[in-house]
Amino acid sequence: MLWIIKIFILLLSSIKTVGNPKKMTVSVIIPAYNEEKTVAKVVGVVKSLNYIKEVIVVNDGSSDQTAQNALDAGAMVINHPKNKGKGAAIKTGFKNSKGDIVVFLDADLHNLTKSQVNNIIMPIMSGEADITKTKFKREAGRVTELTAKPLLNFFFPEIKFDQPLSGQFAAKRSFLNKIKLEDDYGVDVGIVLDADVMGMKVKEVDIGKIEHVLSSLTELNVIANEVVRTIVDRATAYGRITMIDSLGQYIRMEILGLSLASLGIFAIFFIRFVSLTIGVLISSIGVIIAMYYIVKIIRISFNVFSRTDGSMRNLKTFLKMHSPIIVSGLILLAMISTLLGSVHFDGGKISIQPDSRNLIIFNNPSSNQTIDVRGPYTIAANETASPIINIPTEALATLELNYGDSIYIGGVKYTINQTVPGEENIMRLPVGARNVLGLNVGDVVTDGDLRNRFNNFYAQKALPVTGNTSNLNITEGVILKSENSNTSGRIVNIYMNNVQVSSTMGILTNGTYEIYLNGVADKTISYNPNSVTNTYYVQAGNNTFKIEIGPPVVTDMQFASSSIGKFLNFVY
Known about the structure:
By secondary structure, this protein is of the alpha+beta class. 37% of the residues lie in helices and 29% in strands. The chain contains 15 helices and 27 strands. Strands 13, 14, 15, 18, 19, 22, 23, 26 and 27 form a nine-stranded mixed sheet that branches. Strands 3-2-1-4-6-5-7 form a seven-stranded mixed sheet, with helices on both faces. Strands 8-9-10-11 form a four-stranded antiparallel sheet, covered by helices on one side. Helix 13 (393-399) crosses helix 15.
């Protein structure tokens, strides 16, 4: 039974330990410069608080008895051989301290009390704050009212402390380890600004009336300069200045424009789910923004630079400010030059083909199409009983065929069908066609390589028919050629009873071509490029078909001669 009681007591002890965590230790840092009259009094007040175990006075190059008096009062004294500034003294003291909470007190305080020191420390000890700063009644605050507060209201309007520059404050060591302590009088306001930006809990504590030696105008001028520098430096570091200056705004908008232009171009070629229209729109908006703001930047930069002395320092500053624009512009230029290096002129179109997608710009558009983005295509299997090839619309346009047309691969006739929804970039081929084409499942074919893959294959394609000819269908036999433009092409106009019903184009070579009626060979024509005969007639019952060989045209499609297939087939 006794051992059960002992275990119960141990459990209660552990619970008590968890509920009462170890109190944080406190170090007090007192920077001092020629303060022999007051430093001992300040040290004595601090030493009278039993929970403060470490008091460090940093003698910042004093020429009087400051160091000795502080030592006699019981403080640990660290000496600077020469005066380095208040912030440098604070940094030295902090570096040599050990407390979880670090308190900074001025050495020139005449009437400091234990209660005032307690009020600075206790909010942190209780977890109410991470940092405490003081406000107190005093006869002067000229730097605060005329310099610090106006700048803080402008750059850091969220800071509403009554006395942001008070020299007495305390903070957790964990916070002070994360920030940069200034070497001069800017140290106080620097800590306040860092704490605000980092989201620390800061409490302003009223400690009543404080008396200390008033600074001269010369000293106040030094203090004001150092405070201004610190506030401006922090405003720059935390992005408060670049949010308001005109040139900075113009530069940011220029970079935005250049970035949008680059994004749009990248999307056109490499991001499939972004449509061509959206890609062009993004690029256009970016170009407009970039052009608008580059004019503003040139104007304001000229005005600013023309007022300087043109020294190398000003030139370096000027280049540093504009370097983001230069880099963004070079990126856009590199992208454009890379794409232009992939330009191919193929007959009536301009083809821009990077490694992924293929941009086509038509010089001689058909069906009002002037620009398109195509490919790449992933090869997949199609092992249905019927010889069918499923081809995406983009690939079909490159092959210049239509759905329902036929193509002969390895002596087998394959009908071209549309891909199923969700397979816009998938090309499904039966195993026999894949073997002839030298393709495997999973291969990726760029749009620019598609014509090379189908080079010299025979195809039968339907021609568009116009006019009152609902019962008339015309197919032509063609040889697919790679994207090598040929100037020996001809326009072929087809008439029915002297009314034009269709037109096509292709390469005609010296030889014979077969014309079919309802699938039956009806007439063989002999074509000679040098012949004066360019018109051929075929009688089909009551209808007369006229085939007129028109003027030369650049094309990459070749008509099938008699030895290969059907030149034209009229089905009526």
